[in-house]
């Protein structure tokens, strides 16, 4: 299986258009080691001929143009992109569906709550159905995409800000995609409110795990912006921090000790996260734990 890491930043990307913090300014100025990152998503294929996106960010057009493997063809209006798996209905993971309306339509898989939000609150389903033959499926544990097997783990009930409160969830899932022909396994979990029950088992034997790395510390938003975005707002954004006793890095260290064969990486990096600067001590700490911070465009053969 081939996996392209199309984007690695959280909503807003890096630098964020309206942010003049030191890191965003350094990134804009082209400082070495502070590289731009687009909003997170993957493209996955068993054989290189049919591709599935995992999440569709508003950067999807630029991401596709930057990825030769996703070039159109062989016919004049053919694309190798067959569908998209959505981990949730957040805008940074779904706005890209609207950008794909020029195609004939896609198969979209998502948690039921997310499908409902995309029908009612943010009517993507109704909008794109006027442009092509789109098909919408509840993401089911054990489903297949060609020869690829997909496992689904419910990870939280964190609802997008725009969505009505009366839908129970689960709102957010993680995906485990396995290629039985090669034994390759990738796990994608870019949105974790807390470390979810069952994640240890879900990543068992994985070749590569891409995890929510939105924030380094639990109160990062209050230190990095002067816009009144405090730690309460950060907690409400619902992302487990990397650092600290309850952070994800400590959990990963423990799992690495028992399962040294798994590669770990952080994605969905928020523009406030100091790991975006490769000269920072926080970057050094993550790398010292053996966890990767892959750039956009990284291709994995699993
Ligand atoms: C999140 O990851 O918390 C959301 O995508 C925030 C947003 O709306 O950008
Ligand atoms: Mn997000
Ligand atoms: Zn910034």
Percentage of helical residues? 10-25%
Number of helices: 10
From the alpha carbons, calculate the radius of gyration and give it in angstroms: 18 Å
Report on the biggest sheet: 7 strands, mixed
Classify the beta-strand content into a percent band. Answer: 15-25%
Low-confidence stretches: none
Strand order of the largest sheet: 6-5-4-3-2-1-14
> Kindly state the mean pLDDT as a whole number?
95
User: Based on helices, strands and strand pairing, what is the structural class?
Assistant: alpha/beta
Distance between the termini: 5 Å
Which small-molecule ligands are present, each listed once?
Answer: D-malate, manganese (II) ion, zinc ion
Order of helices and strands: EHEEHEHEHHEEEEEHEHHHEHEE
CA-based shape: globular
| Number of beta-strand segments | 14
List the helices and strands and how they pair.
Elements: E1 2-7, H1 22-29, E2 41-45, E3 51-54, H2 60-65, E4 81-85, H3 91-99, E5 107-110, H4 112-117, H5 124-128, E6 135-138, E7 144-145, E8 148-156, E9 172-179, E10 184-189, H6 199-202, E11 208-212, H7 220-224, H8 231-237, H9 248-258, E12 263-267, H10 281-288, E13 291-292, E14 298-301
The chain binds D-malate (MLT), manganese (II) ion and zinc ion.
Describe the protein in words.
A hairpin with a 2-residue loop joins β7 (144-145) and β8 (148-156). This protein has a seven-stranded mixed β-sheet. The protein has 302 residues and is of the alpha/beta class. The termini are close together. The mean pLDDT is 95. It has helices spanning 22-29, 60-65, 91-99, 112-117, 124-128, 199-202, 220-224, 231-237, 248-258, 281-288, and strands at residues 2-7, 41-45, 51-54, 81-85, 107-110, 135-138, 144-145, 148-156, 172-179, 184-189, 208-212, 263-267, 291-292, 298-301. Helices cover 23% and strands 23% of the residues. The structure holds D-malate (MLT), manganese (II) ion and zinc ion (ZN). D-malate (MLT) binds at residues 10-11, 90-92, 161, 191, 237.
